[in-house]
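Extended Data, record RmlC-like cupin domain-containing protein
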Amino acid sequence: MSHDSWIPPPSHPPRTAAPPTSTRPHRPSRSCTHTLAHERPQFHSPFPRPSVERTRPRDERTRASVSHAFSRATNKMATEALVTVPSDVAKPETASKRDDDATEKKWRETAEIFEYGSAANPDMRPIPVLVHPADLHECGETRVIPFDINDFLDITESCTSPNLMASFVRIVKGESIETSAKATSQAFYVIRGSGESESEHGKISWSTGDMFVLPVTKGGVTHACIDAEAKGGAALYWVHDEPLMRYLGVSPADEKKFEPTLYRREQMLERVEEIKHDSGASNNRCGVLLGNSACSQTKTLTHVLWSLLNSIPAKTVQRPHRHNSVALDLAVAAKPGVYTLMGKEIDSQGFIIDPIRCDWIEGGVFVTPPGWWHSHHNESDDVAWVLPMQDAGLYTHQRTLDIRFVDDELELHAAGRIRGSAFAVTNKQYIELAEFGGSVPAPKSDNTIKRVLSVECMTSQPGESKRAKATQVGASICSQPEPEA
């Protein structure tokens, strides 16, 4: 483009050329901005564009920024242009686009959408009432004898309940065996004999009636039988939570949730005797929960496992109770005439409707399904002992254990009330716990409560409020009368 063809911007009025006052050639502005139309540039005002142009979407505009630079030496112009193409111009399909479509198709193949009413309570294989008999560990070679019922539960991996695996370990006198599990918790109860167990956590000795629990263990645990006492070998009751790990698709972390812990038989029985002579103890239920200092809130064996050493005096019946966890019950000591009745429903007198009877065989294990009412009966002349192992540590942490005793439920029903969950801890027959029904969080250092909550505050005084209402941060909590119907 020569200087002779340069035209002033149209926004300036035309004027008559004046005679040159010098021989220096006319020099235009060093830079200007133009809009390309088709292939031939058109020049416009350097001032802002009209507002109508501004209202057009950015992706519909065709723009070019042209920069002119003139060399003083050659008086020639160099031009650079950056053009944005409209978004509606068709683009060829790229490999990335095809990959995205294939990924979406693959992800959608596994999507399922159900009607809520028919799928909210899915039809699943029920947990059966089954027995793992004692004669399995009373004879034969050194081996692990799993109580595997995964086929009943339609679960691929070996398990005794969805979260736990229970097994007998028979160890012939003078022999040893190694056990291993990808678990966060392992419990070993000595059914019979004496010996020692060694792992990365150390070596301990054991004898009949002892129990020890191990946290996550990367290697195996070697058990050796020193004395059999009877049946030619020692026997251990081994329970761990590897099925839970497999269901979650995880491996236990290296960090231990608790330290290896040992419960000696003498220690447990001494505590039972103390409770037995306590004037406040129940006359037909005397047991001790086995806890761990690392589980001070749940008061359980580990963060997953729960265990109780429970005794049933001669000629007594322990009334029905129920809980949401599965119980894997070991009959520690039982004469003929000791049994458990189980069923899904109770009548108005608190008796189980159409119960299943499961007789206790000393050294054997039986399964108590979750949510079933069950009562323990001892028609013999001797005290009977049972050691249930449950995944109730996990349930207690989740506040979903919901253990209930039949007489408490009958009292509520007689008052015309049906509760959805335990609003006050009622497992007084196991351990004395503070009621949390009317409690509130402890104040912070600045004397304010950092949350909004509503808590049940059941009172026994007629006419008093049965609900404590909590308001916003820093406000006081006070009882208010219930609104009249």
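Summary. Confidence is low (pLDDT under 50) at residues 28-41, 50-79, 427-485.
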